[in-house]
Amino acid sequence: MVTKRIIPCLDVKEGRVVKGVQFVDLRDAGDPVELASFYDNQGADELVFLDISASHEGRKTMVEVVNEVAGTLAIPFTVGGGINTLEDMKRILRAGADKVSLNTAAVTSPELITEGADYFGSQCIVVAIDAKYDDSLGSWRVYTHGGRTETDWEVTEWAKEVTSRGAGEILLTSMDQDGAKNGYDLPLIKRVNEVVTVPVIASGGAGEKSHFVEVFEEAGADAALAASIFHYKETSVEEVKSYLREQGVNVR
C-alpha cells in the first residue's frame, strides 16, 4: 500500500517565509531555517522550498538560504524558483536539495525537463503546475510567473506533456483554493491524477485535518502540501498524521 506524505511548504520572499491568499496579500510567517528544523522534528515527510518571487523578479534562488535549510534537515527537500538552466539545477542540488521544482521555466523551455531528467534522473525533477479554473474552457488553465501570466495550456494536457518529457512528480496548486482554507480542489486533483502515472502532490486549500483525508481518499493524491495552517500553528504535522491514521489512511 502506498504511504501518503504530508509536506509543509515554505514560500520564501527576500529571505523570509510568507503566505498569502490566491497568490496575493502576503504576510510574514517566519524564518525558513527555523521552520525547516521545526517541521523535520515534527515528522514531516518532505519539505518544499519555493522562492516565489525569483521567476517574476528574474533572480536566482537564494542558494545560501537553501544551503542553510538543507543543513538542518534529515528529510527530502525540494527547491524551486528561478531555476532556468541545467547549471541552476546543479547549483541547487549541490547546495543540499534532493529535488528541483520547475514551473515557469518548464513552460518556456520544456526541453529543460528532459535535460534534467536525463542528467539527474526523473526522481529529481518535480514540475510545479499552478492552475486556475477557466469558465470558457470548462477546465483549468496553467499559469506561470507566480500566477501572474496565463498560458495556452489546459492543465491535463500540460500534465501529460511534462510527464512524457521526464518529470518524476507533479506539484499541483489550485490558484482558486490557495490560502482559502476551505479544502483542496478535489476535481482538479482527481482530473490530473487520472491522466498521469507519476505521483501528484496536492496544494492549495488545506484548512483542517479532514481536508487531508478528502484529498487522499476522494482525489487520489499521493501527497498533500500545506503552508498557513502549519505556519500559524492552527494544527501540526503530528496532529494531521494522527488523524489520518484514525481515518484509516496509510501514513508514515
From TrEMBL:
Listed name of the protein: Imidazole glycerol phosphate synthase subunit HisF
Cross-referenced CDD domains: HisF
A Pfam short name: His_biosynth
Predominant place of localization: cytoplasm
Enzyme kind, highest EC tier: lyase
NCBIfam families attached to this UniProt entry: hisF
Pathway: Amino-acid biosynthesis; L-histidine biosynthesis; L-histidine from 5-phospho-alpha-D-ribose 1-diphosphate: step 5/9
PANTHER family: IMIDAZOLE GLYCEROL PHOSPHATE SYNTHASE HISHF, IMIDAZOLE GLYCEROL PHOSPHATE SYNTHASE SUBUNIT HISF/H IGP SYNTHASE SUBUNIT HISF/H
Residues at the catalytic site: D11, D130
GO process annotations (BP): L-histidine biosynthetic process
Compartments reported by the entry: Cytoplasm
Family according to the record: Belongs to the HisA/HisF family.
Originating organism: Alteribacillus iranensis
GO cellular component: cytoplasm
Quaternary structure note: Heterodimer of HisH and HisF.
Reaction(s) catalysed by this chain's protein: 5-[(5-phospho-1-deoxy-D-ribulos-1-ylimino)methylamino]-1-(5-phospho-beta-D-ribosyl)imidazole-4-carboxamide + L-glutamine = D-erythro-1-(imidazol-4-yl)glycerol 3-phosphate + 5-amino-1-(5-phospho-beta-D-ribosyl)imidazole-4-carboxamide + L-glutamate + H(+)
UniProt keyword terms in alphabetical order: Amino-acid biosynthesis, Cytoplasm, Histidine biosynthesis, Lyase
